[in-house]
Structures are given as structure tokens and as C-alpha cells.
Amino acid sequence: MRQTIVRNVAELPTYGYGPRSGPWWGAMGFMALEGMGFAIAVGTYLYLYAIDPNWPIGAAPPDLWPGTTEAVVYLLSIIPNEITNRAAYRQDLAKVRTGLVVMSLIGIALLVLRGFEFAHLNTRWDNSAYGSIVWLILGLHTTHLATDVGDTVVLAVLMFTRHAKPRRFSDVTDNVFYWNFVVLAWLPLYALLDWVPRL
Amino acid sequence: MSVTAESNELRDDVLNGLQLSGQLERVWRTPSGLVGALMSVDHKIVGRRYILTAFAFLLLGGILAMLMRVQLAGPEQTFLSADKYNQIFTMHGSTMMFLFAVPVMEAFAVYLVPLMVGTRNIAFPRLNAFSYWMFLFGGCFLWISFLFNVGPDVGWFSYVPLSSLQFTPTKRADVWAQMITFTEVAALAVAVEIVVTVFKLRAPGMTLDRIPLFVWAMLVTSFLVMFAMPSIMVASTSLILDRLVNTRFYDASSGGHPLLWQHLFWFFGHPEVYIIFIPGTGMASTILATFARRPVIGYPVVILSLIGTGFLSFGLWVHHMFVTGLPQLGAGLFTASSMLIAVPSGLQIFCWLATLWDGRPVYRTPLLFVIGFIVIFVIGGLSGVMVASVPIDTQVHDTYFVVAHFHYVLIGGAVFPLIGAVYYWFPKIAGRMLSERLGRWNFWLAFIGFNVAFFPMHFLGLIGMPRRVYTYTADMDWAHLNLLSSIGAFVFALSFALLLVNVVYSLRKGALAGDNPWNGSTLEWATSSPPPPQNFDRIPVVKHRDPLWADSESLPVIAGLSAERREVLLTSLAEAEPQTREASSEPSIWPLLTAIATTVFFIGSIFTPWAVLWGTPPMAVTLIGWFWPSGSKEDEE
Ligand code: HEM
Ligand SMILES: [Cu+2]
Hints:
A: mainly alpha; 72% helix; B: disordered N terminus; binds protoporphyrin IX containing FE
């Protein structure tokens, strides 16, 4: 078949930010299906809650301090996260490096807090269906937290090597974006796990 | 003019036709040899493997179907024991649903969607390779377990408490639950790839109302996968946790509930039927347009009904649970919505009939299969409306009426259009035509065999034959109809043998296809058959809904992409305006290694919870290897 060149795209950039980049849409896709996973887990919790009159079954509600501290740290983490984001848009390598290191440290701190939270749930996974669903939901969110922290650490290391090419800054903004999802997912889960059993 | 201020790389606009093909082929080809094959990230290679593997599972599932039909051909047969029969119908259902029907549709999409939207590779090619390996390993795991006599035996929906530790103390149900996780990981990954490919990698000018119908169908399907599959993953993970570490999700004595399983299962299981059926409609629309030699009438109606079907399919799961004693009002509502879903499907059927009516149809094999699909699917739809009503469902629940119904829907809705698609796209994939004479035989044997096999099952159900029984006594009067059904099943199986013969024969001796043997209108026909590694030497520009019919003299294309590294063009979501030239993955061994690490983790955790600890580091290492940007041309500069 004959072809006619009608346009030249040589001037287009080789990477983009946000909705202009492929990986951003990939992250959106995974957030959608993971968000659905969270929604289903929450639905399961509420279903079990609805059929059992004495919730939380044979246990005290979780101690409040670990989850609450986490919620505060999550909310505060938005500030360095956003600073990293802006630095990445400006392609300010030094600031991005600092930002990623700070975010890695925050992530690790949250993982430690998460350990305490498991210890203060006041129920084991095999005590009752209540214990099972609480552990499952916390486990799901912890998996997200851990993979995101892993991702952040690897990206931080990458930015200190020769691989710190301009288009990597776009990866940094995607990482920032995903962190917001981890934070946003935590707030309803925190309300569910720590406050619903106190109703 | 090709050397821009920012770089002095080689661009495609300084090369003439032949030079350009050669250069792009070098950049995009998969390395040769075994290692190269294991590293491939070309969507065509991965897609072809995916299709072949899914058909291999169809063959295995089909063999089991034949074993069941031998056992049921007469009363009081001893060919299979009750225990073996349980394993076999479970393996048949699980294989067909999880290892054949969904994967084969996604596999066709992996091959076709990038070509149909006019790009060089799928979005996230490494993820694509990974998802194929996961699918392969998960399927092999299930079948090897079966051959070692630890295959599941609790039905393809593994109802608790039957599948709980108490009633299934062996590893059988664990194997089932973990196989689910494998295949869902694969299915979800492909769904995201398809969505992003359709959203961002479309050729310039392919606005939303110029997207080919098959691509639309796969887009809707991918969203269904993304929103339905997490439910079964939560369900099967909870099941395996109940079994391995004593959680209490489904244990009524500790606040759990067996019905929770059914809700979670059918919240996935009902959309699952549409995940299988909607791609079939997309194939049907494409084939119909080509052989009716006119665009499908009511393009916007077809799209709206695809989307409508997608939405409605989530509101229906409870109709699988009418006999579980739900509140009356709920049952009424779900009856209404179950009947409502017949409306969009009906609209599509009218559009197809109108297209045939108004076109100048040529009745080649692909079109025959589409017509067979419409006939069978309508019958399946009618019995569906029947079982959607509570009084009828209460009568026929768990009888062969239901077996008849869902095979009409699944085989009519998916397998017939799929075989049509094989005949239609084989020339593109293999470069040669399938034999038309064998094709006609194939169709008629399939159509007659299918109906003889499954129509009598309606009557068997009405006169009371329950499903999942391994035998029956002579005084039930079920023998004649069962024998008829078994004969039909073997004729149906013969039609697949014929397909296999046709494929093997035509791969060597088939007529050469050329670029566009059927005079199709969509972009996959704008490149050679089979397509070169780069798919297109120059990316087409789309100005019409049927680009190859409207621009049949000369195809408008763009220039300016890199000719020395892998680059794809990203366009805007609605208008498909060019935005960026993004790098596309180089071949890599890491997706395979990651899949192996994940497999060790999944299978290990069935036997010891510690696998969660020692299984994680290899996964982390392989993932870092995967994402570490060494070896890409851009980073070596
Ligand atoms: C070669 C053609 C096929 C034949 C002869 C056949 C035959 C059968 C029979 C006899 C049963 C009932 C087992 C029982 O309840 O005792 C069955 C169940 C089933 N079939 Fe098929 N089948 C065929 C193809 C398919 C295909 C293509 C699919 C899906 C795409 C499929 C999906 C299922 C499912 C989901 C079940 C239910 C299994 C269970 O109850 O756990 N079948 N099939
Ligand atoms: Cu249904």
C-alpha cells in the first residue's frame, strides 16, 4: 500500500509528566484494581460485622495509638512528598535526592509502626472471623506500604547513579503519585479498623 | 532536517523504504536462540504463545469433557469412579474458565490490539511477558497436581464448606485456590496493559469514535477484569488462609459465614461470563463488517451496549444464589436486572442482522461461525431469561438444564466467534490462509455436533437429572437422551480435530495470504502478514472509522520517530493527538526470573507459611533486576 507522510513528530519530547506519560496510566490502572481489592475487603468486613451481633467478636478493639500515629505521619508525609514532586518537575536533582531519602525514611518508620499496630490489634487472626478480616485488611495495606517503600528506596539509589537521566524525573512523580494512593487508602481503613469496633 | 537541536540520532525520515524496514527490524527484533526466545517482549510473539497455550488447555479440558460423556453415555457405567468424576468435572470447569476462555480472549487482544490501534508494541511489554509466564506456570501447576492425584475435586466454584479443611483435608483445594491467584495475576496485568495501550498508544487521529469495535470490546472487558477479579482474589486468599493458618472467614462457629464465599465468588463469577462473551461480540462485529462488506450498522449503539452490559453484569451475581434463602425483595430486584441485561445484547444482535441485511455478504468460514454464534447465543439467552426468574430457577437449579444453558452461552458466546476469529486472523498471524473446504466441514460438524450434544440436556434437566452426578440408573429413562448427547459431543470434538488438521496443513501448504486477503478495513491489515517486528515502518494516521476502505489509494502516515532505538508514539486520550515519543522496553530475561520466583513463593506457601519469608527476597531481587534501567539504549549513551 502506498504511503503519504502527512506529519513529522520529531519535535515531540521523549517523555512526559502525569497523564502524558505511559507509566502514570499504568499506575492509575493498578490503583483502580487495588482500590477495588480494598473495597471488597472492606465489604467483607462490613458483611461479617452485619451478621454478628457482638462485634468485635470476643476481643477488645485495637489500641488506638499505633493507627492514629500512622495516620498523622501519613498526613504529614504529604508535605515532603509534594516538595519532591515539585523538585522533580523542575528537574532539580539535588532536591529530588533529598526528597527521596526523606520519603524512604518515613516509609521505613511507618513499617516499624505497622509492626506495633499488628501487636496491638488485641486479637489474633485465628480467634474469630473478626480477627481474620482485621489481619487481612492490615496485611493488604502493609503489602502496599512495603512495595511502595521498596520502590522509593530503589528509585533513590537510582538517582545517585549515572542512570539519573531527565526522564527518570517522570518516574519520581509517578512514585509520588502512588504514595498519595497509599495515604488515601489508609484513612478509611484506619476509621474502619480502629473506630467501627468502638461504635 | 532529521538532526534536531536536541540530539543527532538517526530518524526515520532520512531513510528510504527498504533501508527503513531493515533498520527498524534490527532495532525491534527479538534476539535469536533459546535465551532470546525466553527474553522476548514482542507482543506478537507473546500473544502467539498465549493463544497456543490457551488452546492447549482447551484440548485438555475437552479431553476431560469426552471422558465425562463416555461415562454418562449409558446408565450405571463404571468407566469412571465417583471420586475420579468429581476431579474431572472440577478440572474441566476450572480449565475451561480460568485457563482457556479468559486467557484466550486476552491472548487475542495481546496480539491484535497493538496492531489494530497502529502502534509498535503493547504498553508495558515486560509486564506482558511476565503475565504469560505466570499463566503458563499456574496452568501447569494445576495440571501436574491433577496428574499426581492432588487435583481439586470441589467444583469450579469450590463452594465452602465443601472446600474447607474439614471436608477436604488434602491439598486439593489449596491447589485450586493458588491456581486462581496465578491466573488472576496474569489476567489483571494484561487488562492494565490493554487499557493503557488503547488509551495512550492509538495512532494519531484515531478518536474515540474511530476505535475498531474489537478494540472497544477488549477495553470494556479489561475494565470488567479489573473490577471483578479482585473479588475472587480476596475470596481465594481467604479460603487458603482458612485452610493453612486457621483464619475463620468461612467458619460459622467463629463468626464467619459460608455465604460470604458465594457473594465474593459470584460478584466475580457473573461478570466473568461477560468477560468471556464481550470479546466474542467484538470478534463477531469485526468479522461481520468485513464479510458483509460494509461498516457495522449502529456503531454507537454497539459501543453503548457493550458499556451497558459491562455495568449491568455487576448487578447480577445474586441470581446464582436464589436457592440460598435470600430476602424476597432482593430476589425480585435481581430477577429484574437479570432480565434487563438481555436488552443490550438484543440491541447488538439487531445491529448485526441489519448489517448483514444491508450488506453484500460473502459466506466464508469466519462468517459462518459468526452466524452460528448468533443462533446458539440467542437460544442460550432465552434459557437464561428463564433461569433468571426465581420460580423456574428453583425448579431447575443444579440440573442439566443449567448445564445446557451455560454451555449455550459460553460456547455460543465465546467459542464460536473465537473459531471464526481463528479463521479470520490466521492469515495475518501465519502469513497463509486456512483451507476453506476444511473450514466448511469444520463449521457444520461443530454446529450440528454442538446442538446434538447440548440441546437434549435441557430436557434431561426438566425431567430431573441433577448436574455433577457420575451415573444414573436405567429406570430413570435418561439413557437415550444421554447417549444422543454423548454422540453429539464426539462430533463436536471431531470438528476441533479438523481445525487442528487445517492449521497444521495450512501452515505449510496454505495459500499465501498477502497483506489484506479479506479486504478488511482495520489497521492490522495495513502491514505485511505476518507483521515485521516493528509492526509498521511508519505509524499510520487515521482519518476515518474504516481507514483501509476510505484511504485505499494511499495511507497517510507520520515520520520523525527514532530509527535507532525502540520508541512508541503516545497520543492524547480522546482526540489521539501526538504528545510524546516514549521508550519501549528492550528484551529482558527478568520477567521470566520474576515469574519463577513468584511461582516458588506461591507453591511453597501451600506447604509452609515460612515460604512467605524466604520466598520474598528472590522476588524483590528479580523485580529490581526488571526495573533497573541497564541495557536500554538511552541509558548507555
Ligand atoms: C467439548 C465440549 C464440551 C463438553 C462435551 C462439555 C461437557 C460438560 C459436562 C457433561 C459437564 C457437566 C459435568 C457434571 O455436572 O456432571 C460440564 C460442566 C462444565 N463445563 Fe463443559 N463441556 C464442553 C465445553 C466447555 C467449555 C468450552 C466451557 C467453558 C468455556 C465449559 C465449561 C464448563 C463448566 C464451567 C462446567 C461446570 C463444572 C462444575 O460443575 O464444576 N465446558 N461440561
Ligand atoms: Cu450469572
